[in-house]
Amino acid sequence: MVEISSDIIRGYNDTIILYLLSEAPSYGYEISKKIRALSEDKYMIKETTLYSAFNRMEKNGYIESYSEIAENGKKRTYYRITGAGTQYYREKCEEWTLTKDVIERFIKR
Amino acid sequence: MEALRSYLENMFANLPNTPEVQRAKSELFQMMEDKYTSLIEEGKKENEAVGIVISEFGNLSEIADTLGIQNFVGQSFNVNRRRVSHEEAHQYVLDRSRHSFMIGLGVLLCILSPITAMISDVIAPGNLGDVIGISTFFGLIAAAIAIFIYSGSKMKMWDFLKKVPCSIDYQTADELYKEQKLNQSTKTAHLIIGILLCMLWLIPMAILDVLPAGSFITEALAPSIMFIMVGIGVMLIIFSSGKDSAYTTLLSLNDKNTVSGNYESTGSGSVTYSNETVATIMSVYWPTVRCIYLIWSFLTFDWYKTWIIWPLAIIIHKVIKANYSMEAKKI
């Protein structure tokens, strides 16, 4: 079975997460669940990957974290996208369109 | 859920104990917890759910890159530390509480040693009484010394805890911490009874004083009762702290600079005060109280009154703590 290329996907974890956050603020597990559902089980993000993406993007100012009491009564960290994050997301989308366009030209069908 | 908690704690055990690392740990745990809960809701068995969560967890080195702690991952910080096993830890607690019992017993024997001398002096005055009195006196002291030496030598095998850097794992630490909490009330009960016995010997003395006194009562029985009560009291006071300090010793074994050094404070956490003035006052609170107590007591010699300082001091301390202390931040 063909597996997803981890090298390529690594560069786009941020894009995936920012897309989901641009819809609504969210938290770790919900995001990983949505990624899995939207990719129809083709991509499962690991917890450590997800957290490092959060951490890196928060440092870059693309997302903000805040904590809220979750429905189970425990404190949970939520993330929301910032202006800079939206800007960065658009750039990444353009980058992908270009990348995809170039690579597509070399793919035999 | 406990399995996940210890998996994570063991992964993080050797990482530096910084707010960033603690935050990463706590957030990863949130994610694992959420995933686990939803797997259980889907009808998965507990061990199945734990298996899935752990297999999909990922690799810590990924986090290390973003946190800037690459150097710590893989390289074991506690590598030179002697690992204290679960069994050893419990053996130590047992030995230490036995040791404090033995020391208490020895002290009790020392305190009781003059009793036979006083009684025999009254019952059989003269040479015979003296011989019995003095020989039991030295006999008891000798027994006490034997107990001290024997018990001390038994504890020798645990000297390494203080000399060699050691470590314990999360499960053991967690268990010890819970046991320590459970032991708290026993400890307090022993301490209170001990202190009461040391204070209340006056009562039987006073009662005996009122009774039509024979020389046996005033010269032998009354002082004996005092020695016995004080002796048992002191023994209980010594015994009360043994087990507790064993737990404290074990829980403070891990390197304070790593996450594992934080096991102890995951539950306890030292009290910090929100107000700086209050914090300064509190740091000298107990020494000041002690000074006031001693000065007042020695100036007036009203020992029967001055003890009131202690309960008052405790109440004031509690009030200040309740109003100004900040809950140590639990991450």
Describe this structure in words.
- The complex is a heterodimer of chains A (109) and B (331).
- Chain A is built from five helices and three strands; from the N terminus they run H-H-E-H-H-E-E-H.
- With 109 residues, chain A is an alpha+beta fold.
- Chain A has one domain (6-104): Winged helix-like DNA-binding domain superfamily/Winged helix DNA-binding domain (Arc Repressor Mutant, subunit A).
- A three-stranded antiparallel beta sheet of chain A has the order 1-3-2.
- The two termini of chain A are 18 Å apart.
- The relative contact order of chain A is 0.16.
- Chain B folds into three domains: 2-75; 86-268, no CATH class; 270-331.
- Chain B has helices at residues 2-12, 19-41, 46-55, 60-67, 86-123, 127-155, 160-163, 170-200, 202-210, 215-251, 263-267, 276-283, 285-300, 303-306, 309-324; strands spanning 82-83, 166-167, 272-273, 325-326.
- Residues 265-269 and 327-331 of chain B have low confidence and may be disordered.
- With 331 residues, chain B is mainly alpha-helical.
- Chain B has a two-stranded parallel ribbon with strand order 1-2. In chain B, strands 3-4 form a two-stranded antiparallel ribbon.
- Chain B is elongated, with a radius of gyration of 28 Å.
- The chains are: A alpha+beta (109), B mainly alpha (331).
- At the A-B interface, helix 3 and helix 4 of A face helix 2 and helix 4 of B.
